[in-house]
Amino acid sequence: MTKITKTLNLARINVSPQEERKLDSVFEYMEVLNEVDTEGVEPTSQVTGLQDVMREDEIDESICSGDDLLACSPLEVENRQIKVRKVL
Amino acid sequence: MNLNELTISKAHAGLKAGDFSAEELTRACLDRIKKRNKDLNAFIEVDEEGALQAARNVEIKTPLSGIPMGIKDIYCVKGWECTAASKILKGFKPPYDATAISKLRDSGTVLLGRTNMDEFACGASTEHSCFGPTKNPHDLARVPGGSSGGSAASVADDMCLGAMGTDTGGSVRQPASLCGCVGLKVTYGRTSRFGVMAMASSWDTISPFAKTTEDAALILQEIAGKDPKDSTTPDKSVPNYTEALTGDVRGLKIGVPKEYFGEGVEEETASKVMEAVRALEKAGAILKEVSLPNMKYAIALYYIAMPAELSANLARYDGIRFGRKPSDTGEDLMDYYRNARTEGFGEEIKRRIMIGTYVLSAGYYDAYYKKAQQVRTLVIRDFDRVFEEVDVLCGPVSPYPAFKLGENLDDPLKMYMADLLTIPASAAGIPGLSVPCGKSSGGLPIGLQIMGRQFDEETVLQVGDAWEKIRG
Fold it and tell me: Prior bond to B147 cis, omega within 30?
């Protein structure tokens, strides 16, 4: 499997061959980061320095109910479960 | 002067004095929308009934009471459809309000309708919308900027008095600059992201548009603060923002990053912005040239880190839980997913999902995603260093004024360059304000960007307001 086919599978989408070429030019541009020396530099994923914020895993239906959320599905709902295509 | 042309602060004074009613003010905005929206396509949908009803029932208790505002089609508003301008979410009606929306409702704001945007907030021109592009009110052949182009155009064209957008890499500041209104990107976490569809979670901010800096401060006042539903909002007190608007910049240190006036920035834009900076100096501010050497890597780092977060966030749009089914539901679940996503997402979204999925996949994570996050650290250090010496930084918002529709549409890299001067502040999570500072020889607005320290919106607003008072 090629790199691009593998990525398309992971992302669950299809794109055209022209699009694949545009992606190549974007990746080429990203190579500029290789000139930066990042030896020993911590990666940043949170900018304001907050630590993990924990809360109890409790159901809070004050925002909306589970049924309200199920009603957002375009598919049939049975026993509070969305019916989907077969998995296997 | 028509009521829809008023600023929020003037309209508030008029409402309080009983010079006109909130309903009259709302009708003036609705009339303007009726007259202009077919040309501009700034609003996707207008809730005339809901807006008029809210206006009739409003009690004037905050500066936003009775003030008609536009809302980017990425905020969950109970009772409205919400699509992020994407086909994949057609028909989705969220069952709750975003925190920013409930705060606006509590303050008495009149919600006019949904404004156009680039699909899932990805773009710099509002051309990547399944509802068609929004046009720039100053020249209908040009883009309004993006991704919050509908909100920017609606404020600049007096269809509403203020509007909500989101700024991840520049999506409020850049369209504000291109349309000639005020756009404030807040510090990361200053406003709650709850109920606003996530694009890149470590970058996204909930940010307003207005006609003046003072109005932007008034909106921020109502929406800022800790929200238990968004754990990235710190427990930090919210200052009184309008108190910061003294008009006085004497002794204030303004850094002028040379990179903001260098390569890739149009000369006319650079010189107009420099004129504004010099005027602030004349008013008593102290200028200092500074350098942000890692800024040149900001676009590359952003277009790795952002798609990575985006591809993870957009994994939830699978045609099952929200929105619409694909026309061909396929044989099995894998078919269903692929058909729903291939059909539902536009080109730019697919592109970013591909980039993001790739840079997060096994074997490439360190080379791309981790590397980008390390370079992000270096960009932040640049800002930390200069903010030891200066109070704010000033430069252009966009490297050039509004470009023509279609001009950058087929070349993703060219489009990404539009974010050159807005991404750095996003990378560092600092606030940035876009204030109009003149027009190009072609009559297109140019914006001055004022950036400050994290959670120091006050100084940023102070400088923006002072500049407006000088500009007149």
Answer: yes
CA-nearest residue to B325 within chain A is A74
Contact between A75 and B320 using a beta-carbon 8 Å cutoff: yes
Give, rounded to a whole angstrom, the gap between the first and last alpha carbons of chain A.
21
> pTM score, two decimals?
0.98
Cβ–Cβ under 8 Å, residues B416 and B298: no
User: What is the domain range of residue B91?
Assistant: 1-472
Q: Is B380 on the interface with A (CB under 8 A)?
A: yes
Best residue in A1, A6, A10, A13 for a mutation probing chain B (most B CBs within 10 Å): A13
Which positions 295-324 of B are in contact with A (Cβ < 8 Å)? 296-297, 299-301, 303-304, 311, 318-324
Which residue of B189, B337, B413 is in closest CB contact with A29? Answer: B413
Element (DSSP H or E) covering residue B452: strand B445-452
The gap between the terminal CA atoms of chain B, to the nearest Å, is 18
Nearest CB partner across the interface for A32, out of B232, B297, B319:
B297
Instruction: Please indicate if any CB of chain B lies within 8 Å of the CB of A2.
Output: no
Q: Which CATH number belongs to the domain containing residue B366 in this structure?
A: 3.90.1300.10
B429 interface with A at CB cutoff 8 Å: yes
Spatial contact of B182 and B216, defined as CB atoms under 8 Å apart = yes
Tens of pLDDT along chain B (472 residues)? Answer: 899 999 999 999 999 999 999 999 999 999 999 999 999 999 999 999 999 999 999 999 999 999 999 999 999 999 999 999 999 999 999 999 999 999 999 999 999 999 999 999 999 999 999 999 999 999 999 999 999 999 999 999 999 999 999 999 999 999 999 999 999 999 999 999 999 999 999 999 999 999 999 999 999 999 999 999 999 999 999 999 999 999 999 999 999 999 999 999 999 999 999 999 999 999 999 999 999 999 999 999 999 999 999 999 999 999 999 999 999 999 999 999 999 999 999 999 999 999 999 999 988 999 999 999 999 999 999 999 999 999 999 999 999 999 999 999 989 999 999 999 999 999 999 999 999 999 999 999 999 999 999 999 999 999 999 999 999 9
Contact B182, B213 (CB under 8 A): yes
Q: What is the ipTM of this complex?
A: 0.95
Task: Provide, for chain B, the percentages of residues in helix, strand and coil under a 3-state DSSP scheme, each rounded to the nearest 5.
Answer: 45, 15, 40
Among candidates B92, B234, B368 on the partner chain, residue whose Cβ is nearest the Cβ of A50: B234
- Is B361 at the interface with chain A, CB within 8 A? yes
The CA angle B27-B64-B444, to the nearest 5 degrees, is 70
Residue B408, Cα to own-chain centre: how many angstroms? 20
Structurally, chain B folds into a number of domains equal to 1
- Return d(Cα B104, Cα B20) in angstroms, integer: 21
What residue of B is the nearest CA neighbor of A60?
B229
